[in-house]
Design goal:
The complex is a heterodimer of chains A (289) and B (157). By secondary structure, chain A is of the alpha+beta class. Chain A is 34% helix and 25% strand. Helices cover 34% and strands 15% of the residues of chain B. The radius of gyration of chain B is 15 Å and the shape is globular. Classes of the chains: A alpha+beta (289), B alpha+beta (157).
């Protein structure tokens, strides 16, 4: 399949890239890992007349902790996240997620920034970033903006990024002691989108109750869903089996899946319930270990 | 746009349209037809090649993105008329039936064995999970990779 013709731009600085985006407007798309965009272009579901390839801009990759945040450069490949010792040891939810995005070969090109900026409710990072309370750093011609993840996903394939802005970094607050998380995804086969998936992140206080709770849901609505009802139920409560079961029911109620080849609405909602309970239990296990 | 790159240690260049997919440049422009086009939708991995040492799906990249990169294709496995231990392994263990997925399987396995010289069966299955075999001959593909791992550890490559 051959994509429609386009003009290719390979800027070497962010300023040059945002300048191009400002000039070209809606006709331009940013090319990052290309693992979602290029398939869409081949199917002619996306027909940008200009591609702005950001892969040659230095400084957009890397994973490090600094100023109280885990800072992930937008161009960081999923495989780098998966192989990162820092992520594996300190951010289990993120590590879980990195292992189930697409397949191992795709992960060598696919980027963390692209997974979020694409705005696809079936992508895996959105739910995880909702659970982790991340923020998105965007740069446009007028400077930098910090966008909270909770208002980042505005519709299917839509985000709060402006057309002339580039997502440059993802910042995740460094979790306090006694924190843990897990990402559980049911997929028909490696590389498929989730039938449903759940990201859970917990922090347990000295008194044994939940100080912080984050629960995100993948591919069960028009946007990624933050299960706020379930989070509120657990907050400041001991995460005993009764509370976990009730939170899982609330997460299922918050989901709004549609029926497709992967399952019926009823099946997917029940899957959210089961996966939420399991993800919460796994997060607790990791905290107690 | 002029694309200059290295493939299997040799310099190549071609003037291509930006929309030309890398796999089409390899096969149609440079006539390196060892790399296959399977699903054309980023699922099957028949088109897998190495870019700067990492396996990537060449149907999901534009040729212009490979400017200045070091590529390796299945044609680069054989050295001085001698098959790579992976190729020998695929022959010895019947790691192919129709052979369509084989170039991709070989390239993914090549990069994997460089990082994991003595892998478990589970690790091999994980590594090739982005490469589909329509004949479902995975058992022998895994054996072929194990065969190559042993050969390489004995100094076979």
């Amino acid at each position: 399949m051959i994509p429609a013709a386009f003009e290719y731009h390979a800027p070497s600085t962010i300023g040059e890239a945002t300048g191009l985006l400002a000039k070209l407007g809606e006709d331009a798309k940013i090319l990052s890992g290309g693992q979602s965009l290029i398939p869409l272009m081949k199917l002619r579901l996306a027909n940008p007349t200009h591609l702005v390839d950001i892969n040659g801009i230095p400084g957009l990759s890397g994973i490090r902790e600094g100023d109280g945040f885990l800072r992930i450069g937008a161009l960081t490949r999923e495989s780098e996240l998966e192989e990162s010792e820092l992520v594996r040891t300190r951010y289990p939810l993120l590590h879980d997620t990195s292992k189930v995005i697409a397949d191992p070969v795709v992960r060598n090109l696919a980027t963390v920034g692209g997974n979020l900026a694409h705005g696809d409710p079936a992508n895996d990072h959105p739910a995880t970033m909702l659970a982790l309370g991340a923020e998105i750093i965007a740069v446009g011609p007028k400077g930098e903006r910090r966008l909270p993840i909770t208002s980042f996903f505005t519709g299917p394939f839509e985000t709060s990024l402006r057309p002339d802005e580039i997502l440059v970094e993802i910042r995740i607050p460094v979790p306090p002691a006694r924190s843990g998380g897990a990402y559980l995804k049911l997929e028909r086969k490696v590389g498929d989108f989730a039938t449903a998936a759940v990201a859970a992140q917990l922090t347990i206080g000295a008194d044994g109750t939940c100080d912080r709770v984050g629960i995100g849901l993948t591919n069960v609505g028009l946007t990624p869903i933050k299960a706020t009802g379930a989070e509120a139920l657990l907050k400041n409560k001991a995460p005993d089996e009764g509370a976990i079961k009730r939170a899982a029911e609330l997460a299922a109620e918050a989901s709004e899946p549609s029926a497709d080849l992967r399952g019926s609405v009823e099946y997917k909602k029940d899957l959210v319930r089961v996966l939420t309970a399991r993800a919460l239990r796994k997060a607790l296990e990791r905290i107690r270990r | 746009m002029l694309v200059k790159l290295s493939i299997n240690g040799e310099q190549h260049e071609a003037d291509v349209e930006p929309r030309l997919l890398l796999v089409h440049m390899l096969r149609d422009v440079l006539r390196l037809t060892g790399t296959h086009i399977g699903c054309d939708t980023t699922h099957c991995g028949a088109c897998t090649i190495l870019m700067d040492g990492r396996p990537v799906k060449s149907c999901t990249m534009f040729a212009v993105q490979a400017r200045g990169k070091q590529l390796m294709t299945v044609e680069g496995l054989e050295q001085n008329g001698k098959l790579h231990p992976l190729q020998e392994g695929f022959m010895a263990e019947h790691g192919l039936q129709c052979g369509y997925c084989t170039p991709g399987m070989l390239m993914t396995s090549y990069a994997f064995l460089e990082k994991h010289p003595s892998p478990s069966e589970d690790e091999i299955r994980w590594a090739i999970s982005g490469n589909l075999c329509r004949c479902t001959g995975y058992v022998n593909i895994v054996k072929a990779v194990q065969h190559a791992a042993v050969k390489i550890s004995q100094g076979g490559a």
